[in-house]
């Protein structure tokens, strides 16, 4: 099990107040912004930006940049690893 | 005549559609009551998880009315179904959670903030169904059939052909949700003070 | 005869009166700049009214300190629009005033002291309520018949005008002063910044590189009169309020739909109500906030309605900043000026069209055109979309 991805799921649930969801409800590759996935929207994207800074110390100033990074838990984890390695 | 063609009662531990129980609360489950219903009924609208309790209640009850009467909304244009909802405590439950989010969480949460108005539930139902008709949410001291009867007069005289009415009181201590659809029909359960009061009580005896 | 506009008043970042605003619009002079009066926010640019609260109070003869900036701005514009009109026992008169922040500017002063336990002045909170501005204006002008305060985000100003026009048409009122007022506050500036739609540079409505709005402050008021009132007051009509509509998007709680559905409905219905053809719209005063979302959605809506024959259009928000609940009223006053003086105002800070739509706004002041009918748009958060059609009085 990838602990970064598990942490991310917990953080998403916490940050977005999705307490009806559990970590098991979110697949690694579920499309976060798709209506069939988690159904998130532009307001939630702002929360994910806050999440990145709060839990991972990563600043993202342009909301457009987040579009690729926030596709799924997989892409978020990859983005965090890339930024940390840089 | 104006007729109540479908209704849903959502209570603390049971959910009834047209008077029939469709879901009962599992006291042993860790899931919230609304999540239990969502799961049991195999609904698929992930946005449900983002909604506040008021929106969840309105979503569930309106979906059940749709299910119980398949195709019921298809005879109407997208701006002919009016929504008239009311409750007594506005969005107080969500307001309180929002306050906690900045008092204990450090910063206010935009995703909670968008639900700190009671009429957001109307928006959620309109967004899901792509309805562009009239809508209003009133905060009243208590469930009053006259409010819906008066409003229906105005709405049905000015372009709306059906009315989805609702009383949605969801607080930490109680769940009292009643949604009903009013249409023009030759016969049926007449949309009047007595019937509305009676149907709003449906199930409350059986639950205890 | 319908509903006539017989008086207008405005205060904004580009001037304290109708004349000052008109001159700045003609000269292409923006009022957006570094904040001078409001301190403690992170915004580098905003459209501030160029007067302190003390100066406003002195000019208006308001003695009390327990008055919000929103009320002071509202009073300034309402007085100008009301002019020399008198209260009347015969003319049923109303007042509808819109606001989004109410007395938040004073509440912030209170709250700072409250948090610091620095002897907070609780009386400041008496100005917090949105209705306090409306009541102050009503009291000063002696309006007692019908008093209402609207708050529907950025469409508030147009909704106040729409409600007023309908009350006259239905015979509930003979005349009604309608408009909106909003002061800058830390609450709104930091709120829009947290949504990441506040541009730290000058806002660039309808430009491909637009990156958000600049907030502004101000107030706009218009005096609407029906036939009976006109007979008794003898006022000369300037324009007609001919069409209006409000429509929802059914898309999202805060964002506008990419297909501009609600905006399209509002524009179409307002023009239909005015009973004129699409080709008779001489100018569109767009909502044009400068956010990615609004300007794209509004452009799509304009194309939905007008096809490839979109009339000359511009957003005047690069002059004033986005004044929220006042915007619809201020821009209605600008639309009256466009008709009165046959002007099309330039869309400042524009360089390149939005890639998806390719629409090009008016970028120069145009003076050689006949402006007969103006469409003015105000689109609020959550798809509360309103459009207004004003036409030349004939």
Write the layout of secondary structure elements.
The complex is a heterotrimer of chains A (86), B (208) and C (394).
Chain A: H1 3-15, H2 42-56, H3 66-69, H4 73-85
Helix pairs in contact in A: 1-4
Chain B: E1 2-11, E2 14-17, E3 20-24, H1 33-40, H2 53-68, E4 81-87, H3 92-103, H4 110-113, H5 120-129, E5 135-139, H6 145-156, E6 162-170, E7 175-184, E8 189-190, H7 193-200
Parallel strand pairs in B: 4-5, 4-6
Antiparallel strand pairs in B: 1-2, 1-7, 1-8, 2-3, 6-7
Helix pairs in contact in B: 2-5
Chain C: E1 3-11, H1 18-27, H2 53-60, H3 69-82, E2 93-98, H4 104-115, H5 131-141, E3 146-150, H6 156-169, E4 175-182, H7 186-194, E5 218-225, H8 227-233, E6 239-247, H9 261-274, E7 283-285, H10 292-306, E8 313-314, H11 317-320, H12 327-341, E9 373-380, E10 384-392
Parallel strand pairs in C: 2-3, 2-4, 7-8, 7-9
Antiparallel strand pairs in C: 1-5, 1-6, 4-5, 6-10, 9-10
Helix pairs in contact in C: 2-3, 3-5, 6-12, 9-10
Give structural notes:
The complex is a heterotrimer of chains A (86), B (208) and C (394). With 86 residues, chain A is mainly α. Chain A has one domain: Non-ribosomal Peptide Synthetase Peptidyl Carrier Protein, Chain A. Chain A contains four helices and no strands. Chain A has helices at 3-15, 42-56, 66-69, 73-85. In chain A, helix 1 (3-15) crosses helix 4 (73-85). The N and C termini of chain A lie far apart (24 Å). The model of chain A has no long low-confidence stretch (mean pLDDT 89). By secondary structure, chain B is α+β, with helices and mostly antiparallel strands. Chain B has one domain (2-200): Peroxisomal Thiolase, Chain A, domain 1 (3-Layer(aba) Sandwich). Helix content of chain B is 34%, strand content 25%. Chain B has seven helices and eight strands. In chain B, strands 1, 2, 3, 4, 5, 6, 7 and 8 form an eight-stranded mixed beta sheet that branches. In chain B, strand 1 (2-11) and strand 2 form a beta hairpin. In chain B, helix 2 (53-68) runs parallel beside helix 5 (120-129). The radius of gyration of chain B is 17 Å and the shape is globular. Chain B starts with a strand and ends in an 8-residue tail after the last helix. Chain C is 34% helix and 17% strand. In chain C, helix 2 runs parallel beside helix 3 (69-82) and helix 6 packs across helix 12 (327-341). With 394 residues, chain C is an alpha/beta fold. Chain C folds into two domains: 3-233, Peroxisomal Thiolase, Chain A, domain 1 (3-Layer(aba) Sandwich), CATH 3.40.47.10; 241-392, Peroxisomal Thiolase, Chain A, domain 1. The termini of chain C are close together. In chain C, strands 3-2-4-5-1-6-10-9-7-8 form a ten-stranded mixed beta sheet, sandwiched between helices. Chain C is globular and about 60 Å long. Chains in contact: A-B, A-C, B-C. The A-B interface holds A 15-21, 35-40, 43-44, 46-47, 50 and B 31-32, 34-35, 44-50, 97, 101, 107, 109-112, 114.
């Amino acid at each position: 099990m990838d602990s970064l991805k598990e942490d991310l799921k917990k953080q998403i649930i916490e940050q977005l107040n999705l307490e009806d969801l559990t970590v098991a409800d979110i697949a690694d590759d579920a499309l976060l912004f798709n209506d069939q996935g988690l159904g998130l929207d532009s307001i939630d994207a702002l929360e994910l930006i806050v999440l990145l800074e709060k839990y991972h110390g990563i600043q993202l100033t342009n909301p457009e940049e987040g579009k690729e990074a926030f596709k799924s838990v997989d892409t978020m984890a990859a983005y965090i690893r890339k930024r940390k390695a840089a | 005549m104006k007729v109540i063609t479908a209704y849903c009662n959502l209570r603390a531990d049971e959910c009834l559609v047209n008077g029939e129980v469709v879901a009962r609360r599992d006291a042993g489950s860790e899931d919230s009551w609304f999540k239990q219903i969502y799961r049991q009924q195999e609904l698929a609208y992930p946005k449900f998880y983002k909604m506040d309790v008021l929106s969840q209640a309105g979503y569930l009850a309106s979906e059940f009315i749709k299910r119980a009467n398949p195709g019921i909304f298809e005879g109407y244009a997208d701006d002919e179904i009016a929504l008239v909802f009311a409750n007594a405590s506005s969005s107080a439950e969500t307001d309180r959670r929002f306050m906690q989010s900045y008092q204990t969480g450090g910063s206010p949460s935009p995703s909670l903030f968008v639900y700190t108005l009671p009429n957001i539930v109307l928006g959620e139902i309109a967004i899901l169904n792509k309805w562009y008709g009239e809508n209003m949410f009133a905060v009243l001291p208590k469930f009053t059939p006259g409010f819906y009867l008066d409003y229906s007069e105005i709405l049905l005289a000015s372009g709306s052909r059906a009315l989805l009415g609702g009383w949605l009181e969801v607080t930490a201590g109680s769940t009292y949700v009643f949604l009903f659809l009013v249409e023009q029909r030759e016969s049926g359960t007449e949309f009047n003070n007595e019937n509305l009061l009676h149907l709003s009580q449906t199930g409350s005896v059986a639950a205890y | 005869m319908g509903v006539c506009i017989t008086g207008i008043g405005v205060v904004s970042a580009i001037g304290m009166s109708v004349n000052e605003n008109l001159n700045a619009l003609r000269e292409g002079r923006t009022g957006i700049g570094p904040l001078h009066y409001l301190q403690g926010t992170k915004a580098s640019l905003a459209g501030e009214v160029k007067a302190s609260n003390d100066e406003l109070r002195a000019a208006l003869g308001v003695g009390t300190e327990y008055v919000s900036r929103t009320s002071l701005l509202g009073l300034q514009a309402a007085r100008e629009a009301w002019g020399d009109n008198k209260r009347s026992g015969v003319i049923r008169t109303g007042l509808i005033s819109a606001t989004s922040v109410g007395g938040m500017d004073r509440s912030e002063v209170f709250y700072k002291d409250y948090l610091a336990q620095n002897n907070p002045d609780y009386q400041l909170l008496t100005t917090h309520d949105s209705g306090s501005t409306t009541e102050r204006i009503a009291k000063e002008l002696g309006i007692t018949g019908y008093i209402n305060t609207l708050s529907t985000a950025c469409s508030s100003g147009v909704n106040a005008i729409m409600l007023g026009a309908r009350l006259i048409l239905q015979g509930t009122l003979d005349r009604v002063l309608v408009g909106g007022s909003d002061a800058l506050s830390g609450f709104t500036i930091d709120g829009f910044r947290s949504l990441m739609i506040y541009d730290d540079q000058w806002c660039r409505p309808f430009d491909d590189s637009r990156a958000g709005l600049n907030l502004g402050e101000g107030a706009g008021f218009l005096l609407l009169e029906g036939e009976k009132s006109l007979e008794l007051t003898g006022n000369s009509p300037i324009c007609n309020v001919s069409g209006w509509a409000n429509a929802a998007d059914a898309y999202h709680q805060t964002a506008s739909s990419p297909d501009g559905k609600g905006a399209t409905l509002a524009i179409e219905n307002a023009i239909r109500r005015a009973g004129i053809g699409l080709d008779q719209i001489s100018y569109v005063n767009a909502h044009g906030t400068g956010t990615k979302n609004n300007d794209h959605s509004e452009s799509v809506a304009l194309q939905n309605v007008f096809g490839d024959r979109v009339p000359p259009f511009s957003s005047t928000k690069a002059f004033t900043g986005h004044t929220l609940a006042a915007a619809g009223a201020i821009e209605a006053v600008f639309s009256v000026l466009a008709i009165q003086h046959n002007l099309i105002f330039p869309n400042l800070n524009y360089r390149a069209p939005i890639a998806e739509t390719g629409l090009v706004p008016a970028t120069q002041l145009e003076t050689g055109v006949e402006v007969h009918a103006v469409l003015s748009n105000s689109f609020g958060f959550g798809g509360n979309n309103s459009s207004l059609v004003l036409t030349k009085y004939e």
